[in-house]
Amino acid sequence: MKVTLICIGKTDEPYLREGVEKFRLRLRHYVNFNEVVIPDLKNSKHLSTDQQKSAEGGLLLKQVSPADHVVLLDERGREFRSADFAAYLNKLMVGSVQHVLFLVGGPYGFDEAVYRRANERISLSKMTFSHQMVRLFFTEQLYRAFTILKGEPYHHE
Questions:
Q1: What is the 3-state secondary structure (H, E, C) of the chain?
Q2: Which end of the chain is more exposed for a tag (fewer CB within 10 A), N or C?
Q3: Mean pLDDT (whole number) for 18-27
């Protein structure tokens, strides 16, 4: 299975970039993992919230092929404990999902077209995090899930 994290906008803070990179390097031992960063919209100050979400949605959907399993990282999505997230990933792998895309929207969330294309939504927390921090939290949880599946000692329960 291939896993891709697709995000809108670059990560400004060096400590967040370094953290994501740390887990990206660790993940290569378990799964084909890639991160795609779509540049921020230019002149977004002149766009309404809906226009911005629509433009970002179009850019996100250009990254998606018909066979992809699309999961939105959305605060209103289904929540998992870490072990349950590992089981969820295992179910996708056993179910022959070839490519799963995890999408992180921009500051205003996702456009309706993106919601319609998504196979499901998951939440990292009931709290709201910046779209930049979500990248670090998600890559760490993805790494944790694979260590759980391999029975390695990273996760303590």
A1: CEEEEEEECCCCCHHHHHHHHHHHHHHCCCCEEEEEEECCCCCHHHCCHHHHHHHHHHHHHCCCCCCCEEEEEEEEEEECCHHHHHHHHHHHHHCCCCEEEEEECECCECCHHHHHHCCEEEECCCCCCCHHHHHHHHHHHHHHHHHHHCCCCCCCC
A2: C
A3: 96
